[in-house]
Amino acid sequence: MKRSNKTPSSDMKIPLQRLPNGLRLDEERVAQLLDIATEEFLANGFAAASLSQIARKSKASKTTFYARFPNKEELFLAVMKRLMNIHKSDIELSLGPELPVEVGLRQHANSLVHAIFTERQAALNRIITMEAHRFPSLAKQFFELGPKHDHDLMTDYFKGKIRSLELVDEDPQIMSEHYHSLLFGGVLRSVFFRLRPAKLTSMELERHIQGVIKVFLRAYRASASTPRKKS
User: Fold this and answer.
1) Contact 216/113 with Cβ under 8 angstroms?
2) What is the model's pTM?
3) 91, 133, 176 from 156: Cα distances, Å
4) Which DSSP helix (H) or strand (E) runs through 23?
5) Each residue's pLDDT tens digit, 136-145
6) Is 21:63 a contact under the CB 8 Å cutoff?
């Protein structure tokens, strides 16, 4: 597998690491090592990935490598955080709190779905699903970085839209749960479980997202006559 030549964005920079024996791994060296580890994990899964193979391919001394990543879980966690941060800022910026709610939701849904169904993210999702029972700490970290982060993001977004009187004054956490349930149901559930081709056509995806937003706003959009709860 070819290694990506992309440079990690500034929000993914890894600070200089001082190891117990005084050795240092600079940003570029850690990034190269994580590139190799990413390919190894995604190609072979968590259980079959070999730390010694990753160390050999990265041309790092065993002392340096194991001082920085003493076990497979810690290395995989670093890879997982890096992968999940790639699209994080794009998803957050897609909402645009100043935009009408239907526009913000459409942009967010598109960004989130495209991020989750990239080849690498889909492979990561499969690894977590297979290994969650043996390594619950990894599953918890995945949940915190992914589903929970977006749930909290949308909860805050819906709070703002309630204040701007675009949405009814209901529990924004429940709104977020309903929104995500709608978004990842239907055709996307079939894709996730590989019951159909992994890539939706742009028309299929647009139809699905439009349906999600239509149903969600039918339940939660405020109207001029919508009574406001007393504070």
Assistant:
1) no
2) 0.79
3) 14, 31, 9
4) none
5) 999 999 999 9
6) yes
